[in-house]
Design a protein that fits this description.
One of its GO terms (molecular function) is monoatomic cation transmembrane transporter activity. The chain is an alpha/beta fold. It has two domains: 130 residues, 3-Layer(aba) Sandwich (Rossmann fold); 72 residues, 2-Layer Sandwich (Alpha-Beta Plaits), CATH 3.30.70. The protein is 28% helix and 24% strand. The chain has eight helices and eleven strands. The strands form two sheets. It has a six-stranded parallel β-sheet with strand order 3-2-1-4-5-6, sandwiched between helices. Strands 7-8-11-9-10 form a five-stranded antiparallel β-sheet, with helices on one face. Helix 1 packs across helix 6. The two termini are 34 Å apart.
């Protein structure tokens, strides 16, 4: 008997230039397991996409009644692509949306957004549309995003608890972290000790390894390190 894979439901609020860039990147990825819904208070912004997405709605998303009518809490990811996003984000958080992506225009703005419930911050210097498309197209976003911290210039860091038996009891140099996964190891924590590891450092189960890299690479290495079944290492 086969298993039905539920489509990931993504809602984008605000279809201005930033929102349009995100929509186009997601559509160009040809992901078949995404259900995409767009919301804007200007119908003209929605017209170009109405035949390409699963739903378009005109409404003011600062109004909780609009969001409740959309059953916004049932979406896997909500992207707030409007510049004035604090009130919308606060309402989404109050309604129980678990994964919220929004753009910050300053470090202070980013702090406020995190305090009111934003899961992932997008900074304006980045290729925002591309980054968001990667985020929402990846099934691991909801699982891993809370542990991802933005650094700058598109780089992020995360700390991963090692579970994959393919890398347990192997030296760091035996695994293609840099050449294949395109990530760097900055720290390893084991019990109460912290290490700056060299290539001959042997990885143990439950080690906490801090990686630095671009978002898509960080998600990939997190998936790999947390698997609990044998999987082929890339450089073998």
């Amino acid at each position: 008997m086969g298993f039905f894979k539920r489509a990931r439901e993504i809602c984008i609020i605000g279809i201005g230039r930033f929102g349009q860039a995100i929509v186009k990147k997601i559509l160009s990825s040809n992901a078949s397991d995404i259900r995409l819904v767009l919301v804007d208070n200007n119908e003209r912004n929605l017209l170009q996409f109405k035949d390409e997405v699963d739903g378009v709605y005109v409404g003011d998303c600062a109004d909780s009644k609009t969001l409740e009518a959309l059953k916004i809490d049932e979406f896997d990811v909500v992207i707030v692509a409007t510049p004035n996003n604090i009130e919308i984000v606060a309402t989404l958080s109050e309604l129980g949306v678990k994964t919220i992506i929004a753009r910050a225009f300053s470090s202070r703005h980013a702090r406020v957004l995190r305090q009111i419930g934003v899961t992932q911050i997008i900074s304006p210097e980045e290729e925002a549309g591309k980054k968001v498309a990667i985020l929402v197209s990846n099934n691991s976003l909801t699982k891993f995003s809370e542990n991802i911290t933005e650094i700058r210039d598109g780089f992020v860091s995360t700390t991963v608890c090692i579970k994959n038996p393919d890398i347990v009891n192997k030296n760091i140099s035996e695994i293609a972290f840099r050449s294949e996964y395109n990530v760097l190891i900055s720290l390893v924590q084991r019990d109460t000790k912290t290490f700056l590891p060299s290539g001959d450092f042997k990885i143990k189960e439950n080690d906490l390894i801090t990686f630095i890299g671009e978002l898509s690479d960080i998600i990939e290495i997190t998936e790999f390190c947390t698997k609990d079944k044998k999987n082929k290492i890339k450089n073998e």
